[in-house]
Amino acid sequence: MKTLKYKITLLLVLVMSSLLLAACGDSAPTKEAFPSPSTNAKASEIPVGTPGPVPGTVVKFPEDEAPHNVMTEWWYYTGRLKTADGQQYGVEFVIFQGLRANFPAAYASHFSITDVQSGAFKYDQRISISDSFKAGGTEGFNLKVTAPQKADWTMQGVSGKDNLKAAMDDGSYAIDLTVNDTTGIALHGGGQFSYGPAGASYYYSRPRMSVSGTISVGGTAKQIASGQIWFDKQWGNFLPLAGGWDWFSTQLNDGSEMMFYNLRDKNNSLIQVFGTYVPPCNGACTPNQPRKIYDLETSDLTIKANGEWVSSVTGVKWPSGWTISVKEKPGIPAMTLNYKPVIQNQELDTRKTTAVVYWEGDTDISGTKDGKPIAGSGYVELTGYDIGTTNK
User: What does the UniProt keyword field contain (predicted)?
Assistant: First the structure.
């Protein structure tokens, strides 16, 4: 049994790391491998409840909420919770799905909690396989990642009404959440873009989902009073060959949102910056209708790290705190935003499941928009900083 368990674990690590560790390839990619995503001009015109494809669009709802028969896919939730007793928690919950010919579907999952009050950051990770993979359909997704003698970690949802359950093995934290899309969908790059030789990706977000349910702390369930979750869904036959990336989600208190990321080669040279600005709904948005969006390109954004933090566990030196400048252009206001982690240590060592070390954490946002003060919250993800420096 131990030999079988070892072989299964090895298979999963190999499959999942091939999805995610391609970011750490031996050769630096050329700029041509990451062309700027081409915008789908019809992306914001999909009528509510449309059952099939609309001319000029590439993503269908609810069909594309379900799993796909592709190489790489993930369902990714990050956000901030506030409990009835006035406490604040950051949460990340993700399931990665990997498919390879002649192998069953492989799943890896990460679950983390940022406990602002205690200054603690805890995470757990799992891998599992499934012989019951089923792609497509109109019933959304129903995912689970199992572990022996432990409750399943699950994600279920359709039409922007999702349920999330996960519990850390040591009993420190658990979630049982219902999240509902309150504003609609952002189709990044119009919903699909190319990585050139590395493949093509579909990518959409539900940038502002309301939260109810409970978070358990040390075995005691606490009711969620308020909160907001950012959901990302990405899938396709792609393996991005970058050295790493910095990804930012942004939920501003005027109702607008923004996503952007940069890609770097193994020498930390910038390859690409891309993002999406989503203006406020102003009462005109519904959960399954794509929002009006504006593309952010390399020349529109300046991303500057303000400090650093060195992990005592892995030895990795991470940037910590950023100033983001956004140039004004049609549809996009000028912004200067400061992103400050609520605590510095939000590092995940997931070498047991996806073979990477990354930093992903809850972040306070302040600054100016159109010259006026603005605030908000978001999540930042950093990868690739462990190359050549990680403690074994």
Answer: Signal
Q: Which residues contact 291 (CB under 8 A, 6 or more apart)?
A: 44, 183, 184, 185, 186, 207, 278, 279, 281, 285
CA 150 vs. chain centroid, Å, equals: 25
Respond yes or no on whether the N-terminal peptide bond of residue 62 is cis (omega within 30° of 0): yes
Q: What are the backbone dihedrals phi and psi of residue 4, each rounded to the nearest 5 degrees, phi first?
A: -65, -45
Between CA 114 and CA 122 the distance in angstroms is 7
235: tokens are 């899938």
Q: pLDDT in tens for each of the 392 residues of the chain? A: 333 333 334 344 444 444 443 333 333 322 222 233 333 444 334 333 333 333 345 788 888 899 998 888 999 999 999 999 999 999 999 999 998 878 889 999 999 999 999 999 999 999 999 877 888 788 999 999 999 999 999 999 999 999 999 999 999 999 999 999 989 999 888 787 766 666 778 899 999 999 999 999 999 999 999 999 999 999 888 775 568 899 999 999 999 999 999 888 878 888 778 899 999 988 778 887 888 899 898 899 999 999 999 999 999 999 999 999 999 999 999 999 999 999 999 999 999 999 899 999 999 999 999 999 999 999 999 999 987 676 65
Task: Measure the CA angle with vertex 306, ends 304 and 309; round to 5°.
Answer: 120
Closest to 103 in 3D by CA, of 2, 200, 16, 199: 16
* DSSP string computed for 191-240: EEEE-GGGBEEEEEEEEEEEEEEEEEETTEEEEEEEEEEEEEEEEESB--
Please, what are the domains in the chain?
Answer: 2-382 (2.40.370.10)
